[in-house]
Amino acid sequence: MILVAAMMSSASCSGKVSSTPAEQNIEEIVAESPGNMFSADTSFSYVKAQVDFGPRTPGSEAHDACARWIVSELKRHGADTVMVQRGEVVDPVRGSKLPVSNILGRYNPQAKDRLMLVAHYDTRPWADEEDNPDLHNTPIDGANDGGSGVGVMLELARQLGIESPEIGVDFLFVDAEDSGTSGDHPDANLSWALGSQYWVENTDYSRLALQPRLVIVLDMVGGLNARFHREQFSTAYYPAEVNRVWAIARQAGYGDRFVNEQGGPILDDHLPFIRKGIPAIDIVESKSSATGSFPATWHTLSDNIQNISPESLKAVGATMLHLIRTGF
To answer: How far apart are CA 285 and CA 172, in angstroms?
Structure first.
């Protein structure tokens, strides 16, 4: 990695079970949402549906129910291919085996020009950023950190089911991003992003066919008044790609959200792809005006549906849809 000295303080972002999470509400909103126009309300409903499952910690019933629901939504929205990659990783805290399930949905799988969007759907098992230490072992809702990227991607999948893209689009929902420990160094073995690490090490693109030309990670994209600065690893390795996405955001009318300034260096799901030589960038709130880094709700019990903004979801989702429709 080429920015190690400057980035040693990097950090990752990474209950009750509802069998039919807000399904009827989603259907009612979808009926009012036309194609080729990203719906903030539908995306918000997808975030709420995940929160209704409860904390989606790997290995829990809520996590597995959410994974099955993601698969069913991809199929319902006409994905040409839906597959689940299952495996095991080592829990970085407990040292035990941790099951992972990465979910891939593909649109226009024959297209050689491919974009992959990535979001993690697991949630932090501990509210370790709570001021009260008695709450540190409490799992979080993960509405923003886990739910928001998935909510954007499922609404994009719905749009592509209405109007097929000319390029190939892959949606990868990765597992076990948010079980990491503090103090990781970008040159060392990451305890974060375990699902995406498993994906890049165990995916044979000669069999799956057509590696993506660009990977874009969506993480913590639904916070109140969220602003997205240029993540430092993304800018260091793939500045042209970052420039293109931020330019598309301005064209789509969201230049105020995609701030043309440097953000922090984040240990996130884009790093395993970068290490594998696959171009990848990260859209993540990493320079909040309130904290100077991650949103104030990060890894706390306040990461709930009350702190999700449909406007933030739309800024990212509409930018991604514009990118898909106009080319990248």
So the answer is: 20
Q: Which of 61-70, 207-216, 284-293 ranks highest by mean pLDDT?
A: 61-70
H-helix or E-strand spanning residue 151: helix 147-162
Distance CA 203, CA 19 (A): 31
The model carries a pTM of 0.91
Instruction: Provide the mean pLDDT of the chain.
Output: 89
State how far the Cα of 317 lies from the Cα of 78, in Å rounded to an integer: 19
Tens of pLDDT, residue by residue over 34-50, are 556 999 999 999 999 99
Question: Which residues lie closer than 8 Å to 53 by C-beta, 6 or more apart?
Answer: 15, 16, 17, 18, 21, 62, 63, 65, 66, 69
| 129 vs 107: CA distance, rounded Å | 38
β-pair type (228-230, 97-107): unpaired
Closest-CA residue to 41 (of 154, 120, 197)? 154
At 244, list the tokens. Answer: 């293109």
Cα 315 to the chain's mean position, in Å? 15
Is the torsion defined by CA of 46, 47, 52, 57 positive or negative? positive
Give the residue among 292, 309, 9, 12 at the shortest CA–CA distance from 152.
309
Q: DSSP class of residue 300?
A: S
Cβ burial 84-97 (10 Å sphere, 16+ → b, else e) = ebebebebbeeeee
Quote the CA–CA distance of 108 and 76 in Å, as a whole number.
16
Identity of residue 250 = R
Rg of the chain, C-alpha, whole Å: 18
Tokens of 206: 């000669």
**Mean per-residue pLDDT, 152-178:** 97
